[in-house]
Amino acid sequence: MAKPLLVANWKNHPDSLFEAKSLLKQLAKSSKLFKKWDFYIAPPFTYFESVSSRANLATQDIEIFSGTQTGSISTDILKSFGVKIAIIGHSERRRTDESSEMVSQKIKAALKSGITPLVCVGEETRDHDGEHFEALRNSLSQSLAGLNKVGNISKLIIAYEPVWAIGKSAKEAITTQELGETVVFIKKVLSDILGRKTASKIPVIYGGSVEASNALTLIRGTGIKGFLVGHASLKADSFKAIASSILNSSKDE
């Protein structure tokens, strides 16, 4: 059985290199715990070197340009630091000017460079009539358009990230029934787009108000294979507790 996936998305935090190194030292105290999982940290670019010496490295975005581009970070530079995973289509980027078509181009760029795309999808709102499923289907279809001819598409990772759940308390976040139903739906759409055999190899992880208090509940029996963790990953104790909950889930199964 593959290890569950745990990705820490630091976004534009911590505020200084000193704080970043301090957080890494705290996490290192539980290195035996994190080695049990497929564990990555996606820090700001300026912390790449510090993180790469302590943990598997992910990037929060990837460029679609080639050649000389002021201010851009090429895939070759990312790979030189040891980047293995690229977060693509995060809701915070989609909310600005990143379309599903751009996401598709970035997925292709990642696959061509040998970097695993972690593709974020999720509905803005959830309704009782199920219309949010159609929005989710459209996002997946457009984001994954034209991938059948590019690289090993079975290396994709899907991060289900319901926008409406982000920032809410654990009690207000998605229920296990809602999450389980959505994972089944995502796998069905993946089968329609990429074929059943390929879809069966693509893990679905969850991001959206993941806390130590709800991590075990969210992962048990819902079909998800891990977490994309935001603010809770910036607190060593809470992040360790999330990792421990996945361990407990594995023991129960």
Short characterization:
The protein is α/β, with parallel strands linked by helices and 253 residues long. It has eleven helices and eight strands.
Helical content (DSSP H or I, runs of 4+):
40-55%
Strand content: 5-15%
The CATH class of the domain at 75-236 is Alpha Beta
**β-strand number:** 8
Identify the CATH architecture of the domain at 75-236.
Alpha-Beta Barrel
Based on CA atoms alone, the radius of gyration comes out at 17 Å
Largest beta sheet: strand ordering: 7-6-5-4-3-2-1-8
The largest β sheet comes out as: 8 strands, parallel
Instruction: Supply the CATH superfamily name of the domain at 75-236.
Output: Aldolase class I
Describe the structure.
The radius of gyration is 17 Å and the shape is globular. The longest helix has 19 residues, at 176-194. The protein has 253 residues and is of the alpha/beta class. α6 (100-113) crosses α7 (131-143). It has a domain at 75-236: TIM Barrel, CATH 3.20.20. It contains eleven helices and eight strands. Strands 7-6-5-4-3-2-1-8 form an eight-stranded parallel β-sheet.
